[in-house]
Every structure is written in C-alpha cells, then in structure tokens.
Design brief:
Elements: H1 13-19, H2 26-38, H3 47-61, E1 65-69, H4 75-81, E2 89-94, H5 98-109, E3 116-120, H6 123-127, E4 134-139, H7 146-153, E5 157-166, H8 183-197, E6 201-206, E7 212-217
Parallel strand pairs: 1-2, 1-4, 2-3, 4-5
Antiparallel strand pairs: 5-7, 6-7
Helix pairs in contact: 3-4
Length: 218
C-alpha cells in the first residue's frame, strides 16, 4: 500500500503504549480477530490504542449525539459509544452494505444495538438528511472527501463540539515530496490545510497511530 513505514513511532513504543493502556474489551478483541480473518484491509481497523483514545475522548465529552463517517467493521463505533449520555445515540455511515451484516452482531454483543444507528450509502447524501446537533463527529472514510464531509457536518456540530479526522498523517506521506501526486494523499494534505486555515475552529494534529486531527468548533 505504501513505501513508507506504517508506524510513525520508534520501534517498540506503540507496543509499550498498548501494554500501559486499559485492556481491550472482550467484544473488541473478538471483533479485531474477525476483522483480520475476514476482511482484505484489516489495517483500516482503529485497533486497541486508538480505540482506547476514542473511548476516553467520548467519556470526557459525554456526548448526547455522535456522528461517525466510515463504519468499517464497527470497532470505532463501539469505542465512541461508550461515553454516550443516557439516551444518547451514535449514527454511523458506511458505503459498503457488507459491513452492516459484519458490524451489527458486534453492536448487539456490546449491548449497544439501541444506541448505534447504522446507515448504508453515500455519506454526503445521508449527512444532508440529518438534523443534528452533534457533540462529536469522527471522519474515517474516503480521504479525497474529507473537506466535503467537514463542510457538511460543521453546521450540525454544536458550538464547543468536536470534529475528529483519522489518517491525517497518512503513513508519513503528507511531508514527502510530491505529496499531491496521488488523490488520497492530496485529500489529506488539503484537509489539514483547510482545518488549519478555518477561522472558527481550534485544532491539534496528534501523531497517534496514523494521525488524528481534532478540531473544536468555537
């Protein structure tokens, strides 16, 4: 997939961080194993360290409503849903109908079938049918469309709410010469620049796993 090392950390550091992070929930461990056995791109899974980070963020914010763009097999949705308020809801969107059959049994096993609402189809169209407001948005879908997704969700995010975007370091390609020569890298570079220049957000780009950009709506 890439000529660059997929790890942006020193050798052994991510393993050390994993070892000093709260253990993975059993349902997530089973989901991770199934993802590696049954999908062609298991590296798309959030995984233990990033999942624990998303779960911690959700507990800190205590959101009433979360929007996730890019479900994959449901790992990140389960993590994000952990911090929902009583009666809260997470809406997750994926373009692949096969992911619905994959993820939903794990949502049920996690006790979240009433808290997670999954939509299948074109994310841009589905977002335009939603009313919000959302306390937290997590973008982890096609990289070329990140700016478009941000523009669509921004009006639906509460003031003080957060928009998180995954893969914003894109295997280190964002700092390599010719970063705009492939569409996915160009999409990430464009997104990072867009958020940096946005007049009504505060942002931090964390070098966690493959990079997470956190933007807070002022």
């Amino acid at each position: 997939m890439t000529d660059f090392d997929e790890s942006l950390m020193l050798p052994g550091i991510e393993k050390y961080a994993d070892q000093h992070t709260s253990p993975e929930m059993p349902v997530l461990a089973r989901l991770s194993r199934a993802t590696h056995l049954r999908t062609h791109q298991p590296q798309m899974l959030s995984g233990h360290l990033q999942g624990a980070f998303l779960q911690m963020i959700s507990h800190m914010i205590k959101p009433a409503a979360i929007l996730e763009i890019g479900t994959f097999t449901g790992y990140s949705a389960i993590c994000l849903a952990q911090g929902l308020q009583e009666g809260g809801k997470l809406i997750t969107i994926d373009c692949n109908p096969e992911m619905e059959d994959f993820a939903k049994p794990y949502f049920k096993e996690a006790g979240l079938e009433d808290k997670i609402e999954m939509h299948v189809g074109d994310a841009a169209e589905i977002i335009q049918s939603l009313t919000g407001p959302f306390d937290l948005v997590f973008i982890d879908a096609d990289k070329e469309s990140y700016v478009r997704y941000f523009e669509l969700v921004y009006p639906l995010v509460k003031p003080g709410g957060y928009i998180l975007a995954d893969n914003t370091l894109w295997y280190g390609r964002v700092i390599k010469p010719g970063a705009d020569t492939d569409r996915e890298t160009a999409g990430i570079v464009r997104y990072n620049k867009f958020v940096k220049q946005h007049s009504n957000v505060e942002q931090v780009l964390l070098p966690l796993r493959d990079g997470i950009m956190i933007a807070r709506k002022k």
